[in-house]
Write a structure and sequence with these properties.
The complex is a heterodimer of chains A (about 260) and B (about 375). Helix content of chain A is about 55%, strand content about 10%. By secondary structure, chain A is of the alpha/beta class. Chain A is globular, with a radius of gyration of 18 Å. In chain A, strand 4, helix 8 (about 180-190) and strand 5 (about 195) form a beta-alpha-beta unit. Chain A is built from 11 helices and 5 strands, in the order H-H-E-H-H-E-H-E-H-H-E-H-E-H-H-H. The relative contact order of chain A is 0.21. Chain B is globular, with a radius of gyration of 21 Å. By secondary structure, chain B is mainly α. In chain B, helix 2 runs antiparallel to helix 5 (about 155-165) and helix 2 (about 45-105) crosses helix 12. Classes of the chains: A alpha/beta (about 260), B mainly alpha (about 375).
Amino acid sequence: MRTLIAGVCAAVLAGFAGPALAADEGACYVAGGLVHTDFALPHTAAAIERKHVSVVVLGSASSTLPGAEGAAKAYPARLQDSLSRRLGADVTVKVVARTKARDTASEMVKALRQVVADDKPDLVVWQTGTVDAMLGVDPDEFQAALGNGLDALHAGNADAVFVNMQYSPRTDSMISLGAYVDAMRFVALQREIPLFDRLGVMKDWNEMGVFDLSTATKKIDVAEKVHDCIGRMLARLVVDGAVLAKTNVTGAGNADVLNKDNH
Amino acid sequence: MPPAVPAGRDLRLDLFRGLALWLIFLDHIPSNMVSWVTIRNYGFSDATEIFVFISGYTAAFVYGREMDNRGFLVASARILKRTWQIYVAHIFLFVIYMAEIAYVAASFDNPLYSEEMGILNFLKQPDVTMVQAMLLKFKPANMDVLPLYIILLGGFPPMLWLLLRNATVALAASVTLYGLVWWFDWNFPAYPSGTWVFNPMAWQLLFVFGAWCALGGAQRLSKVARSQPVFWLAVGYLVFAFCITMTWYFPRLAGYVPRWFSEWMYPIDKTNLDVLRFAHFVALAILTLRYVPRDWAPLTWPVMRPAILCGQHSLEIFCLGVFLAFVGHFAMVEISDGIAMQVAISVLGIVVMVATAALISWYKNIEGKKAPRQATPNADLAGGEA
């Protein structure tokens, strides 16, 4: 019975949420279920209820943009914007970016332990994979590092969302991502962690002509738009995960709190 | 008693190796829709297994006869000569790879991809990169098959000697090494970190198995391989592998796979030639044996000729395929990466591979006519190159 109620409520929610969320995604819209999670984010949902959400983005260079405005235009800041909009004015959202270029996943695990101790985040968005692929780190080691990182997050009562690699047509034939993409997908499934498939999403944008990702340019406008879209789509995934946590536990009543912008 | 090396050319080997080369080419073009047709999307094993098995088979076929006729030393020298050719081919491909990334370094700039441009750091230390490449430790993307082949063939003479003395012991030794690799996690180191993508000490199993089949093993197995229960077992396994593969593309289906089972099954290790992959290849081979007999009429049909030609010059066509995949991807980035372009590049690439194979055949024919009384048995005439 409870599952039935939850199912109905989720459907109703989706019906309500649809137009508002689509409006926030604008040109970022990606066909199909590329941005989708079956896994809940319970700590994030609890934090939303407490009206204060603390998120850390742990990543390498592809979580940043160069230039003076880089930090404000990169997807962690865009994620904060979009989350604030979706959750309504009475929920404070703070997204902190902890990025370091050229860090492999196992190097990030150390940083992650520090982050959990210092920032006490409700959610860690963990972007990784590219550096490991470029260095040819043993995929088993990479996979083990992902597991260790999740253990640390679990111990620190924080949710996790994985963000995988960027789609980079120009270097596609030079960097073998395959084994690392699979490892992230596998760990995400095994540990029931939402995965933001940045690779798939960007590939789709490139194919649909939303963004042309193979142009050589010094200009930053397209890069900024891409990051803005990643921030918005990521916000959708986070909210979906939080809604799932609520519907799983208590049914629809409390899930309303997650969609303030619909009322 | 040394097992008899069967005579006559087995066109099936050429055909399937040629097809494997096409599939490897298609799989090497990144983001290529056409690669949906390749077998790796429908089961555990892929064209690499076919390539390695047939290479082992032909190596034993060609050099086994040589070792019988002219002794261990001469045959070993020929095997090592071949190994050297493959090494040179690999270095040639490496130079092309370096040229490509150097071009990208000089011409491509995009603030979105500062991270990915880190791959160009190899250009900053050419001394280290070159030496590591020559030591086969630095192997860029898609350049892992030839180093595997170099090690397999370079280490083949003693194994061939043993295969000719006692095939069963040789196969047992190979299986033992495979088991030890899994037990102790052995692999060769790679640069800048990690280990070989194709672990030669694990993949040797398939190569030696191919060689063992060539030296009489296939005949010994044929009764079992052609029996009804084994056939249905193979069919069942292929269907099972197909269903599992589908859960990779349609994650919603993954829910139907019991958790304990996925935990037992995953990861399906390509580096160390997972048993599931090996079994998948064997199942494919069993079906092939049943439906494609040695005297299968279509083997002589003109439509089969292109693939057979490619299979007969596998080293040249393999290298060409890697190069064409580079060029094809380059064209996709520079001109267009639409589906029409992907299809055009895939088809054009295969046409170039076939044309080149035909050219090589023609040239070898001319050369052969000039020196008709060659003393050594010609590897090409004995069933393709090793």
